[in-house]
Amino acid sequence: MKRRILLGAAIAVSVSLSAGVSFADTPPLAVKDTYRVGFAQMESNNPWRIAETKSFHDTAKSCGWELIATDAAGSAAKQVADVDSMIAQGIDVLFLPPREEKPLLPAVMKAKAAGIPTFLIDRSVDSNIAQAGEHFVAFLGSDFIEQGNRAAEWLIDNFAGEKGVIVELEGTTGSSPANDRKKGFDDRILQDDRFEIVASQTGDFARDLGRQVMETLLQAHPDVNVVYAHNDEMAIGAIQALELAGRKPGVDITVVSIDGTRDALQAIIDGKMGVTVESSPFFGPLACDVMKKYAAGEKIPGWVKVEDRVFTIENAADHIDEAY
Ligand code: GZL
């Protein structure tokens, strides 16, 4: 079953609601007019993070949230400490985008022990240790394996060369989107024997590090003709590095990415990027909707899956006005 929930101005996110899981073990949430809500953001170093945080602030008033929002500046340890502080401040519910799958497990366990229901936002934690319906209520986010798979499908369908020599720029080490975008892309692309991944290195989802890593990998692999970046920030950084080296992104090298930021859509319109698979940051309204349903006793699926679109030269100009 798919439902479309209007997020932000014009972004509608279709959410597929699979069978609910029992919540015998997750802390209850009372139906109230106002809630003290913790939103423990991991960092604010890129447009995606900034758009997500704004989405929660923009939702607070209409959802009756007294929002306690923190920013861990890229430190998983600080993100855990921020959650500790929120628990001490007596939050009713926790929205947590865990920077990395393992280091954020203590935050999930402490919230549960304190009787606070947790919703994981945009990234998840190590499912071997913590599960939806027991340690946290649900994960709200995209299917990162599917995103990687769709990026590979686009490349297979649109690459005109004889041989694809791929450099892969990975996201934050140990994060669920980096792990799964790699799995989804690599498993699919290696089924087509035209392609070879000659290097794969983290750029930590950051533009400048993505640029630096691309400069280094370009030295080692001058024959590269495809870049697969786990997010647009690193893809834009890679495009900068390629142009500085005299390469022509979109002409002699194909760039494939994920997120759907404004700069990426512009790069597609300019012919420098081939595709970006959407990964929406607008989680505020969805978090409000799911939290209220949980409080009302409705069954919530362990994974509230956000459906993503694909942006290419055919539709980038139609969507750039709504991009962040
Ligand atoms: C995806 C999110 C990722 C974005 C990156 O849900 O976790 O983190 O794709 C961001 O741009 O840094």
TrEMBL record:
Source organism of the structure: Amylibacter marinus
Residues annotated as domain Periplasmic binding protein: 38-299
InterPro entries, per database record: Peripla_BP_I, SBP_2_dom
Location in the cell: Cell envelope
SUPFAM superfamilies: Periplasmic binding protein-like I
Entry's family note: Belongs to the bacterial solute-binding protein 2 family.
Keyword terms of this UniProt record: Signal
Protein name (Swiss-Prot/TrEMBL): Sugar ABC transporter substrate-binding protein
Lineage: Bacteria, Pseudomonadati, Pseudomonadota, Alphaproteobacteria, Rhodobacterales
Pfam family membership, one: Peripla_BP_4
Gene3D superfamilies xref list: 3.40.50.2300
Signal peptide: 1-24
